[in-house]
Structure formats: structure tokens, C-alpha cells
Amino acid sequence: MRSLFWRLFLINGLVFTAGTLVLAFAPVTVSATVNPAEIPVLVIGLAIILATNALLVRAGLRRLDAEYLASGALAVAAQEGERQRIARELHDEIGQSLTVALLSLRRVADQAPELREETEIAQQAVRASLEDVRQVARRLRPGVLADLGLRSALRELVDEFSRTSGIDVVRSMPKDLPALGREVELVVYRVAQEALTNVARHSRATSARISVSVEGRRLTLLVADNGHGGDYPEGVGIRGMRERASLVGADISVTANAGGGTDVRLVIPDAVRGA
After folding, report:
1. Please, which contacts does 66-72 make with residues 24 or more away whose CB atoms are closer than 8 Å?
2. Rg for the chain (alpha carbons), in Å?
3. What pLDDT sits at residue 91?
4. 265 beta partners
5. Which pTM does this prediction carry?
6. Backbone dihedral angles phi then psi of residue 218, each to the nearest 5 degrees
7. Domains and CATH numbers, the chain
8. What is the rounded CA–CA span in Å between residue 211 and residue 162?
9. Cα–Cα distance between 207 and 69 in angstroms, integer?
10. Rounded to whole angstroms, how far apart are CA atoms 189 and 151?
11. Residues sharing a CB contact under 8 Å with residue 62, sequence separation 6 or more, in sequence order
């Protein structure tokens, strides 16, 4: 946004400068030739024009930035709403259907003992599918975040990630996190979730660590791994993290370490309420 401002300012500045020169040296001027006494007036006029242009362009870009953040907030809110809808459907419809299928297989096994081995294999498959559905539903709608808070939600996220990926994750979080807004908690959780997903997909890491630290009103989330150290691809996940960070005025960086591994760092300057 800043580079766009300076490009617009430079273009308009060149236009105004050219206009001033034309006014100064064209035949239709106050004097047939430039009067030295008129030069300060022209310079002051040009400075006023440039300053006014800068203020107008900056105000316009500020409104554009506010509209962008507002539209981003609406998009993220819509995304969260869709996540919750899908999670409910998975739990209420697919989960219940799988549960019914599991009970039906048990009845078949009781009524036809000769099919017990086959039905047991089918039951194991259904149980695995049911657990997969529950895990997906939990990832889409982290109920523990609303019920028990950010610290418990991150602990559950890390434990599930370690179980499914086989990657050891070291946690470092304060025992008692200060009061955070719901939107801040959701941004921290989703960024941690996406960062761990990238560790599993792209880093070829064997271990990782996640830390949350609070200093004053500032909260910092760090997700680091010991992988090959290459930058994660700037795909939908990274863009999503950046968009979420912008909603709470946060900065996010994804950097490759010289010694190997990648750090994802989220810094929210004004995260803590009433600090």
C-alpha cells in the first residue's frame, strides 16, 4: 500500500511539475518571459499543489485500505461461518449415518456369527471413518476454543497434529493467558493451525515447536521447525494467514533460517484487553 501511494504521488507530482513549467515558459504567462520575482510564487504554488495532492491521495488510500480490511473481515467471517456449517453437517449427518452403520454391523454380527470376522473388519473401517469425520469437524469448528480458551485449544491442536503427522512438537505457553478478544484468539488459533499444516506438508521436519508469549499488550506466536529451511510456497494458506493477521492489526513473517528450518511469527501489538 505504501509503494502504491508513492507511485501515485510521483506520477501526479510529475504532471503538476510539467504543468508548472508549461505555465512558466509558455507565451500565455503573466510575463512574456519568466520574471525572477514570479519564480518563488510558482514554486510555492507547486509545493501547495503537491502537498494537497499528497493529502488527497493518502486519504483516498486510507479509505481504500479500510475498505479492504472490512471486506477481508467479512470474507473471513463468512469462511468461519461456512466452516461451522460444514462441521455441523459432518457431525450431525455423516457422523450419525456412520454410527447407524456401525450399530447395524453389530446386529449382523450377533445374528450371523459365521460372518463375525467380516463384520468386525467392516466395523473397524467404519470406526476409523467416524474418527476421521470427528477430527475434521474439530479442526473446522474448534469448540474447545470457545469452551476452554486459547491455551487448551492450542494444546489439543498440537496433540492431534503430533498423533497424525508423527512430528514431535514442543509447546511453550504461559500457564495463564491474559484476557484476549474472541477475534484475536481465533486468528492465533487459525495461524497456528495453518503453520503446523505447512510443517507437515512442506518442511520435511522431524520436530517443531510452538510458543506463545505476552509482553504488555503484545502477543507473539512462533511456530518453528527443523526442516530443510526453504520458504513455504506463497499459496492459499500463506495468503490466508496474512489476511487473518491484518484483521487484528498484526504482522506476520515467514522466514527460512540459515541453519535449517522455517519460522512463522505472528505479532499482535494490541492483543491484550485492558493491559
Report:
1. 69/246, 69/247, 72/243, 72/246, 72/247
2. 29
3. 67
4. 222, 253
5. 0.61
6. -90, 135
7. 1-141 (no CATH), 142-275 (3.30.565.10)
8. 15
9. 35
10. 9
11. none
